[in-house]
Amino acid sequence: MIPLSFNDYVKFVTEQLVKKIDEPRVKKELNTDSNDELVKQPLSNKAFGVIPLGISMFVHRKKNNS
Fold first, then answer.
1. Rounded distance, CA 19 to CA 6, Å?
2. pLDDT tens digits, the chain, 66 residues: what are they?
3. In Å, how far are 7, 19, 22, 33 from 29, measured between CA atoms?
């Protein structure tokens, strides 16, 4: 795999963004799952990934073992 220069990377990302923006709304809706099935992630998970989940599981386990 050939490493991309910064300019090539910016060009690629811009092209992908423009394709996504120009895509018709109907096609976007077909590509996404139904909104009923989507669950909004807590801010802690969105910002820090699975680390808060791991910490809460660890603390919960410590409380149950005590």
1. 20
2. 567 788 999 999 999 999 888 877 776 666 665 555 566 777 776 777 888 888 888 888 888 876
3. 32, 15, 14, 8
Cα–Cα distance, 9 to 7 (Å, whole number)? 5
Q: CA 15 to CA 20: how far, in whole Å?
A: 9
Predicted TM-score (pTM) above 0.85:
no
Q: Which two tokens stand for residue 14?
A: 């811009």
The answer to whether residues 52 and 45 touch, using CB atoms and an 8 Å cutoff, is: yes
